[in-house]
Design a protein that fits this description.
There is one protein chain. The protein is mostly helical. Helix content is about 50%, strand content about 0%. The radius of gyration is 39 Å and the shape is rod-shaped. It starts with a helix and ends in a 14-residue tail after the last helix. Residues about 25-40 have low confidence and may be disordered.
Length: about 180
Amino acid sequence: MGIAATMMRETGMVAPERSEGERSEPSRSGGATIAVAATGPGGSGPSTVDPEVSTKAVRRRFTAAYKLRILQEADRCNRGEISALLRREGLYSTHLTTWRKQRESGEIAGLEPRKRGKKPVSRNPLTAENERLRRENQRLQKRLRQAETIIDVQKKLCDILGLTVPPIEQNGNDE
């Protein structure tokens, strides 16, 4: 057995499968790949990773601590090292740009991932009370208009019939 085969066996790496038309030199094709060493269900024997892409994409969510750590690392990097950091972490330069703006504007809470979609309406306890009082006010104004109309009709009827109407007593609260 060759040195490359012994190293692959000891490190858990296996050479990629090759078709008949491909070259057989590992140095030309990128070398060996890491073997899957995970165990299957129940912890028995190695299992294979499902190569299928999931039907629904999952959006990555970054914590504020992670964002701050990456920003600190990026601040310590030179220009060429930042791209290596981004590749290593699987990030885009726009992530850094957005996170820096949030940090500079003091939006530490803004660094936390936000839920997408329609924003929930905050429930103020006074809002319900205010709405109830508004409806009651409208109802009472309607009853007042009805009562004033009835009183006007009664006054006109008394005038037609020639009856005298005693004056209405007014307390200090009315006009």
